[in-house]
Predict the 3D structure of the following.
Amino acid sequence: MARFVHGEQSEFTVDYVNQPDAPARSSGQDRRVTAAVPGRKLCGLVAVSFGLLCVLQAALNISPRLYTSDSKTEAREVCCTNQTSEQKRELLNFDHYFQQGWVYFRPSFYYISSEKKSWQDSRADCQQRSADLVIINSKEEQDFTRKFHKITWIGLTDRETKGTWKWVDGTLLTKSYWNHGEPNDFEGKNEDCVEIRFHDLENSWNDIPCGDQNFWICEKRIAL
């Protein structure tokens, strides 16, 4: 152990680690060199301690993330507690819908086709996906469907009774977005099915024959 005297009233003690005892007598220059050695070791110990603190802090930072992830899983399970078995299954299928190319716009998932079919064949495709052609219930949904910039079938027809427009779920049309002059059975054709054609306009609907080929939009409503 070496003692360094600072002034005449206090002294500072430094323990040497694996160092031989200092000579009993040494010059002033030797004392300065000897004092520098434990100083460097002290800095090294501080650096090591700081490194350990950094490792500990990193571990503490990771722990909340793991907890948050577990909490989200638990929250989903709690959220599903009061749901029916069918609703639970739909919640767990969210990732599946995204992987299959569906787009979510509350409260439904939408599928936009990459090929063209007749209105009836388009609807059949949606039904095979446990969905149906889109039913537009609000201005927000109307604006959403126009963003795809494809001429697409929607789930609206008067095939059952001419002039009585119904959605595919059997409900009557109450709010419409017909383009100017539509519907009109252009040139005497039986235009009994509806497409979104004029994407730059809020009133974008057009009636055409159901046998024409179009892209289509499926809608699968998720009731939470």
Observations:
- The mean pLDDT is 73.
- The chain has five helices and ten strands.
- The longest strand covers residues 215-221.
- The helical segments are 28-79, 85-92, 94-99, 119-128, 139-146.
